[in-house]
């Protein structure tokens, strides 16, 4: 009979003296994720749908990037600007009714200038009407796993259906970065001029030299001031979202503090390289009694400063493993648990082939198991 086999590994030689302190954000809702490891560093009211304001324009941009990827439009495709697009008000690219703007210009008008007119122009030219486009946004968000997101328009203008959770916005930002790296550079563009009007990017972090390179601000009276942001330092990238601040200054200060905290209070540590043998697993009825367990991929983690002595690393597998075993087969799991952080799991694979044992070997193995049972013990104990 197979049982769960587990044991804990100890890590030595890595210790930092200072302690990572919790970040007590002023934002009503917030989330920070270390994209490199997928570690959630902070989550505050992250799953409640809230008014996203102009940050929901990220979904409009994502839908446009999908149209580019699918070949439905090109960067040089020209979209006709309607009277409705120019009459909404709010943030504007200063489009004129009846003119045509290229997809390339509209992308910059949305990302840099937060143009409501640019969003409506995109929506109407892709889906026929903005309402139809908003329905497509809602459907596509659900398909992507953004279960707390619904849309009533393409702009983020106040609307009962315009809701997104902080978690969904961070997820969407990550999708924009990873799915469309060829277009992500638009988010770090400092300014854009259209029809003689130059407007600066509203992201307050871009000029601070802290690695910030996107994504989108937002503000309405209902939502307060918010920002979906990302920054990269060295081999680490963070993605965050804050909302519900009471001023532009509060938003800028909170975003900068949060970014510095995420980079300075956590350290990335490589634990095991791909192919490194981490443990052995018992083998049943095989030509060998054990097989090495190796990392399927490089295994690294993100840890608060001074916490590595408290990290628990556990290997589990259901064993003994029955031969034959093929090298590279997933046979075990390595679990990394850090206090006050999420637990991560990593696949371990068999290091080498193990053939079925000869008849003699199998008889001897059966006899060994029988004698162990008769003595009142077992080779493996259940977790």
Secondary structure blueprint with pairings:
Layout: E1 3-9, E2 29-34, E3 39-44, H1 57-70, E4 78-80, H2 83-87, E5 100-102, H3 103-111, H4 116-127, H5 130-144, H6 166-179, E6 191-194, E7 197-200, E8 212-220, E9 224-233, E10 236-245, H7 248-264, E11 266-272, E12 277-284, E13 290-295, E14 299-304, E15 312-319, E16 321-322, E17 330-337, E18 344-350, H8 359-374
Parallel strand pairs: 12-16
Antiparallel strand pairs: 1-15, 2-3, 2-10, 4-5, 6-7, 8-9, 9-10, 11-14, 12-13, 13-18, 15-17, 17-18
Defining key terms:
2 domains; 5-stranded antiparallel beta sheet; alpha+beta; Peptidoglycan synthesis regulatory factor (PBP3), Domain 2; 383 residues; 7-stranded mixed beta sheet; disordered C terminus
Globally, the shape reads elongated
Name the average pLDDT.
90
Calculate the terminal CA-CA distance, rounded to whole Å: 14 Å
Radius of gyration (CA) equals 27 Å
Provide an overview of this structure.
The protein has 383 residues and is an alpha+beta fold. The chain folds into two domains: 29-264, Beta-lactamase, CATH 3.40.710.10; 270-374, Peptidoglycan synthesis regulatory factor (PBP3), Domain 2 (Sandwich). Helices cover 27% and strands 30% of the residues. It has helices spanning 57-70, 83-87, 103-111, 116-127, 130-144, 166-179, 248-264, 359-374; strands spanning 3-9, 29-34, 39-44, 78-80, 100-102, 191-194, 197-200, 212-220, 224-233, 236-245, 266-272, 277-284, 290-295, 299-304, 312-319, 321-322, 330-337, 344-350. The strands form five sheets. Strands 1-15-17-18-13-12-16 form a seven-stranded mixed β-sheet, with no helix packed on it. Helix 1 (57-70) crosses helix 4 and helix 3 (103-111) crosses helix 4. The longest helix is centred in the last third of the chain and has 17 residues, at 248-264. The radius of gyration is 27 Å and the shape is elongated. 40% of the residues are buried. Mean pLDDT is 90; it is low at 11-20 and 372-383.
């Amino acid at each position: 009979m197979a049982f769960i086999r587990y044991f804990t590994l100890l890590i030595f030689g890595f210790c930092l003296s200072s302690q990572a302190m919790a970040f007590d954000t002023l934002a009503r809702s917030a989330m920070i994720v270390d994209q490199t490891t997928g570690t959630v560093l902070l989550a505050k009211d992250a799953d409640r749908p809230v008014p996203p304001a102009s940050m929901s324009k990220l979904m409009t941009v994502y839908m446009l990037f999908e149209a580019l990827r699918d070949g439905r439009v090109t960067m040089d495709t020209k979209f006709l600007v309607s009277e409705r697009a120019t009459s909404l008000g709010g943030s504007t690219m200063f489009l004129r009714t009846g003119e045509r703007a290229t997809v390339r210009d509209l992308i910059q008008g949305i990302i840099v200038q937060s143009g409501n007119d640019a969003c409506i122009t995109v929506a109407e030219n892709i889906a026929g009407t903005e309402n139809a486009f908003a329905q497509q946004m809602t459907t596509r968000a659900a398909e992507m796993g953004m279960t707390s997101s619904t849309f009533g328009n393409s702009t983020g203008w106040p609307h009962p259906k315009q809701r997104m959770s902080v978690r969904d916005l961070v997820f969407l930002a990550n999708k924009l970065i990873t799915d469309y790296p060829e277009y992500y550079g638009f988010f770090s563009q400092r300014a854009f001029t259209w029809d003689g009007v130059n407007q600066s990017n509203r992201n307050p972090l871009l000029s601070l030299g802290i690695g910030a390179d996107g994504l989108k601000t937002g503000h309405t009276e209902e939502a307060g001031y918010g920002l979906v942001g990302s920054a990269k330092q060295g081999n680490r990238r963070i993605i965050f979202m804050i909302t519900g601040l009471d001023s532009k200054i509060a938003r800028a200060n909170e975003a900068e503090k949060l970014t510095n905290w995420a980079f300075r209070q956590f350290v990335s540590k490589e634990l095991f390289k791909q192919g490194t043998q981490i443990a052995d697993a018992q083998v049943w009825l095989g030509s060998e009694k054990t097989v090495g367990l190796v990392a399927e991929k490089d295994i690294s983690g993100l840890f608060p400063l001074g916490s590595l002595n408290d990290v628990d690393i556990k290997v589990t597998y259901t064993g003994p493993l029955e031969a034959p075993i093929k090298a590279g087969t997933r046979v075990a799991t390595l679990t990394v648990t850090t206090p006050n952080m999420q637990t991560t799991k990593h696949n371990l694979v068999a290091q080498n082939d193990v053939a079925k044992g000869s008849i003699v070997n199998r008889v001897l193995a059966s006899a060994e198991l029988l004698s162990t049972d008769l003595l009142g013990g077992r080779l493996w104990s259940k977790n």
